[in-house]
Amino acid sequence: MISDLKRVIDQVSREKGVEQDVLIGALEEAVKVAARKKFGPDYDLEVNYNEELGEIEAFEFKEVVEEVTNEHLQISLKEAKEVDPESELGDSLGIKMDTDAFGRIAAQSAKQVIMQRLKEAERDMVYDDFKDRRGEILNGIVQRFDRGSIIVNVGRAEAELPQKEQIPRESYRQGDRIRAFILDVRQFSRGPQIILSRTHPNFLASLFENEVPEISEGIVQIVQVAREPGSRAKIAVTSKDPDVDPVGACVGMKGRRVQAVVQELRGEKIDIITWDPDAAKFICNALAPADITRVIVDEDGRSMEVVVPDDQLSLAIGKRGQNVRLASRLTGWRLDVVGETNYNAALKDGYRSLLDLEGVGEKRATDLYEADFKSVGDVAGASIEDLLAVKGMTEAKAESLIDEAIRYVSEQHDAGESESGMEGSAAEGNGEEPEGEEPLSELGSEAGIEETLNQEDTEAAFGNESLKAPQVADPSKGDDPEFDTLKTADE
Questions:
Q1: What structural domains does the chain harbor?
Q2: What is the pTM of this model?
Q3: 8-state DSSP, 192
């Protein structure tokens, strides 16, 4: 064997970064395999590393007996006395073997075992290095491409950037430098698999943490992030120090900090928003730069109707609904953005439908409206207990009113279906397309409604009351990217 084995073990341990105990264990197993190759499986062998001598020692153990029946596992007392004068019957006598006699084939087998154990040790070491680095940003070099995935060289290991985790329209060539977020680290028999991402919301948060000292120090916290990778992102921040502006800290002098992040993301637009514990205020911030006139909150349905000036409607919704969609994901609320004209028209239509109910006058309609029953549909879907909250309401009146509302809704539904069928038949008979509906216009000057429900009086009478709104932007919608809650600095 190698006389200076200890020196070799030290050198390999430093170069490969493998613990000496692992190397010694691999050597002991390799020598044992070599001995089995040479002498067969019938021997009782033991292999140990002698640190003082710096060599691997192999011992053949035999039981001391009077009459030998198996020469591989037994030795006579006479022969045992020659090896060790103190030997007695029943002892297990260890006889040192000459490892040089194992032969070339045995040595080759030992080499294969050592190489295999070294590879296993390196794989385990790589996994141990990366398993606790989930959530960090990693720098690497594009090595090759595999079925749409980018294989990245990260030093002693290779990482994979799957196609779905790549920013759309980004392209790389072999040898390019790349930064990505460590999404997951998995251990397989062939070695650890490091999964990277450039689309994850936390990648954006980590980039800001690297660029903004106030975030890494915990003064400014990133509360939420919503992204449509490669296009636009919104990030909500808050500050523990009232003297530190969280948005200003993230933007930096002349926008240098945010520009560094934008450049890394190849031009992705980033809206930095001040987080507010008040959900309505937070949503107003999230829909910036659009001006918000009113927010109607439905706590039970976790939805909001956001009213904006008519000329701000397209700005609030954004291109293809992107602005309101990101705001919904950022805040976790379903949002319905409507213009003032449509909103006021809906208020008037709802109030007028209450007046259409039998036995409901202006006073009763106003009482219902103030109790959050904005239309006949709300009354039809209410329970008797709900209606008892209305001033002057009794159980009998509530029951009668619900029955009347259900009848009214049913009649309106049937009338709508009948009208639709007649229009379709007329269009077919004339060979013409059915005419579209007239645009929604202001209501006429009915005495009670016009006086009560003009824009100024409506705002004064009803304020920011809740309104059941249709779901336009839903953070839980399956087609949208996953909504991700970030850990704050305290956590």
A1: 5-128 (3.30.1480.10), 131-197 (2.40.50.140), 290-425+449-479 (3.30.300.20)
A2: 0.62
A3: E
Contacts of 327 (CB under 8 A, 6+ apart): 226, 234, 283, 286, 287, 335, 473
Residues paired with 218 in a beta bridge: none
Per-residue b or e along 233-254, where b marks 16 or more CB atoms closer than 10 Å to that residue's CB: bbbbbbbeeeeeebbebbbeee
Residue type, 413: H
Residue where the block lists tokens 């029953």 = 373
8 A C-beta contact, residue 214 and residue 205? no
Q: Where are the beta strands (DSSP E) in 55-108?
A: 55-65, 74-76, 92-96
Tokens of 392: 């002057």
Q: For residue 124, which amino acid is it?
A: D
DSSP 211-271: H-HHHHTTSEEEEEEEEETTTEEEEEEEESSTTS-HHHHHH-GGGHHHHHHHHHTTS-EEE
Residue carrying the six token digits 């701000």:
312
CA-based angle 319:289:453, to the nearest 5? Answer: 95
Residue with tokens 């397989």: 188
Helices of type H across 319-446: 322-331, 340-355, 362-370, 376-380, 384-387, 395-430
Q: Please list the pLDDT of the chain residue by residue as tens digits (491 residues).
A: 445 667 777 777 776 667 778 777 777 777 777 777 777 777 777 777 777 777 777 777 777 787 777 777 777 877 777 777 777 787 777 777 776 666 666 566 666 767 777 777 778 878 888 888 888 899 999 999 988 899 999 887 889 999 999 998 888 999 999 999 999 998 877 778 899 999 999 999 999 999 999 999 999 999 999 999 999 999 999 999 989 999 999 999 999 999 999 999 989 999 999 999 998 899 999 998 888 888 888 887 888 888 889 888 888 898 888 999 999 999 999 998 888 888 778 777 766 777 767 667 777 777 777 666 767 767 777 777 777 777 767 777 777 777 777 777 777 766 666 555 555 544 444 444 444 433 333 333 333 333 333 433 434 333 333 333 333 555 655 444 333 444 433 43
3-class DSSP state of 333: coil
Rg for the chain, CA atoms, rounded: 39
